[in-house]
Amino acid sequence: MRRLFAVRRALFATALAATTLASACAVPRAIGILGSDRGILLVRHNQTAAQEIRIGEEGETVLGVVLPGAIACFRDVPAGPLRVEAHAVGSGALTRATDLILTAERPLLWDMDHLQVLDGRAYRGLCE
């Protein structure tokens, strides 16, 4: 009886360890920690000037420009934690900035005017 209990306990511990390991391995992929995944970032605004969208801690990578009243789609953006900045075209002045976590599976929409990061799946069609 004790042997049967020990076998069951060993099987349970093995199953628990396998589940924990699988979960831990999936987390970096899901949030892009390893940098292998890419996501979709959409940006909209109604500022008076076009906005240049940059990513990175220092805003070193330029994604492109968003015109007033439009929604721009940026594909192939590195997944994971991102700092996103909008700079007025011409003056280069920082208009807005936000921090977000982009995943490969779910596009995000940054609404600059309302300081919101929203689910962008409804706007994914604009990227085609």
What does this structure look like?
This protein has 128 residues and is an alpha+beta fold. It has a single domain, classed as Immunoglobulin-like (Sandwich). 23% of the residues lie in helices and 41% in strands. The chain is built from 1 helix and 8 strands. The chain has one helix at residues 2-31; strands spanning 38-44, 51-55, 61-66, 71-78, 80-88, 94-102, 108-111, 116-119. Strands 4-1-7-8 form a 4-stranded mixed sheet, with no helix packed on it. A hairpin with a 5-residue loop joins strand 5 (80-88) and strand 6. The longest helix is centred in the first third of the chain and has 30 residues, at 2-31. The chain is elongated, with a radius of gyration of 21 Å.
CATH architecture identity: Sandwich
Q: Outline, from the CA principal axes?
A: elongated
Query: Which topology does CATH recognise?
Result: Immunoglobulin-like
Structural class: alpha+beta
Could you state the oligomeric state of the chains shown?
A: single chain
Helix and strand string, N-terminal first?
A: HEEEEEEEE
- In the sheet with the most strands, the strands line up as 4-1-7-8
Total beta strands: 8
Q: What proportion strand?
A: 35-45%
Low-pLDDT stretches: none
Task: Look at the structure and give the CATH class.
Answer: Mainly Beta
Element layout with pairings:
Blueprint: H1 2-31, E1 38-44, E2 51-55, E3 61-66, E4 71-78, E5 80-88, E6 94-102, E7 108-111, E8 116-119
Parallel strand pairs: 1-7
Antiparallel strand pairs: 1-4, 2-3, 2-5, 5-6, 7-8
